[in-house]
Amino acid sequence: MSVVEPGTVSSSDLVGRVKRLLLSPSAEWERIDPEPATIRGLYVGYVCILAAIPAIAGLIGGQVFGHGIPGLVTARPALAAAIVGTVVAYGLSLLSVFLLALIIDALAPSFDGQKNQIQAFKVAAYSNTAGWLAGAFSLFPPLGIIGGLLGLYGLYLLYTGLPRLMKAPKDKAVGYTVVTVICAIVLFFAVSLVTGAIAGMAAFGGLAAASKVSGDSGSLTIGGNTVDLGKMEAASKQLEAANASIEAGKDKPATSPDVLKGFLPGAVAGFSRTTLEAHSAGAEGAGMSSAQGDYEKDGKRFSLAVTDLGALAGLTAMASAMNAQSSTETETGYEKASTVGGRLVSEKWDRQAKSGSYSVVVGNRFTIEANGDADSIDQLKSAVAAVDAGRLEGLAK
């Protein structure tokens, strides 16, 4: 199939491409490599269609079966909130493909590949095929974990497609794939923050009701939550500038991972650090970096990580501007997210398993997260608080 402007293709061509990518990916990447294409054509003829599968399946599954443990705890989100969340998640999934393509293109020279935005977009679009199809399991939420496992096949699609389309040597394929996956994980985290923030606002009253615009303060109140329109505009401009900088290779480089390692304490809340590692990924404007330490005490273990989101900081800035809150209670724990002092904070704790996570976004660019086992959520909070957030904010400027 040749995906050309305007990008519409017959259903048989679409189905055939999907089947060949899943059953014989290497041969299909060879077909894809020389095909003429445009970003718009790929969006209209492939991405928009397949990305709708998990969005629609999740919406239907949540309304019919609810979320939770069947027979024990089941919650069905309000239809209006569910629709808003679905639309937002779908839109951001489309944006994620474009951002991932920029990352793939920017990384190419570092692995002796050739920069080519169209080829990079092909890789980003087609390697998501397995994940989008696996999203169909969201029709029955308890099977969502199976869909997630099947979606991992996308990593193999990425591994086979990257060197072929980006003209990277085969001996660099593993490194290219690993670094791209690291960047994709950070991208997923940032997009999830925005999705959760908007969905949270919808859950607290809906976007269509109880809304009020204040001309004096430049804010929008939705269901009791106030959105700072000035910050939203600034965040949008930040995203646009980041995309332009990535394309031009002039974005501010990510913080050195060795510098981030210096933020992790040797001990915290009675836990001693047992390992310390750092990673960096990026080239020509798509830089990201992180440092992580493992902490142990009396058989319990959690990780503490500091990550520089780099060019993706605009996404967290947008989420922060939404000033949203959400909260979910279960029989054994809770999960909540909020904006505290201009910082995005997320918290999750299972009292029975004595495990959870606590994270803070600092300067709309750095994330500090503690994740794992502890005596209480307070120990994870103490671990995050032990990282000098003020210094990180200074680096973010």
Automatic annotation (TrEMBL):
Location in or out of the cell: Membrane
Domain of life: Bacteria
Yip1 domain ranges (all copies): 20-190
Chief subcellular location: membrane
Membrane spanning residue stretches: 43-66, 78-104, 139-162, 174-204
Keywords: Membrane, Transmembrane, Transmembrane helix
Signal peptide region: none
Lipid bilayer topology: Multi-pass membrane protein
Name of the protein in its database record: YIP1 family protein
Organism listed in the record: Caulobacter hibisci
